[in-house]
Design brief:
single chain, 129 residues, mainly alpha, two-stranded antiparallel ribbon
Length: 129
């Protein structure tokens, strides 16, 4: 089976990957590096979501203009969309499937939707074991 690779904004995505990746053992260093990357992406997403209300309040308070507020909202929306997509299409370091997606819609749970790996990497918090 051939893999289809797509490169978007410097990130390479591999489609049609074989699903027997669970049999391959991932080293603890690779697992920690992958989980750290996942946690960083999730934190950026939640910070972008949390910034919304204070940002809009400050922009309205300083400018008093709906047009300027709309411009700031547009920039925020672009950044949140990018952060949500980067987080949604992040791969699990253990099973190499998409960590937050098991279908069409992303579900930002703390466990991998395929292998059950917890975002903290602690064995006792894994979902399917």
């Amino acid at each position: 089976m051939h893999d289809l690779t797509i490169k978007i904004f410097g990130t390479t995505y591999i489609l049609n990957r074989e699903r027997n990746q669970m049999d391959k053992k991932v080293s603890r260093v690779e697992l920690e590096y992958g989980l750290r990357s996942l946690r960083r992406k999730r934190m950026f997403l939640w910070v972008m979501i949390g910034i919304y209300l204070p940002m809009i309040w400050i922009v309205i308070d300083i400018s008093g203009s709906d047009k300027i507020t709309g411009i700031y909202f547009g920039f925020w929306l672009v950044f949140v969309t990018i952060a949500a997509n980067v987080t949604a299409f992040a791969r699990c370091p253990s099973c190499k499937n998409l960590f937050h997606m098991n279908g069409v819609f992303p579900m930002y749970f703390r466990n991998c939707l395929h292998c059950g790996l917890h975002i903290s990497g602690e064995e006792n918090k894994n979902k399917f074991e």
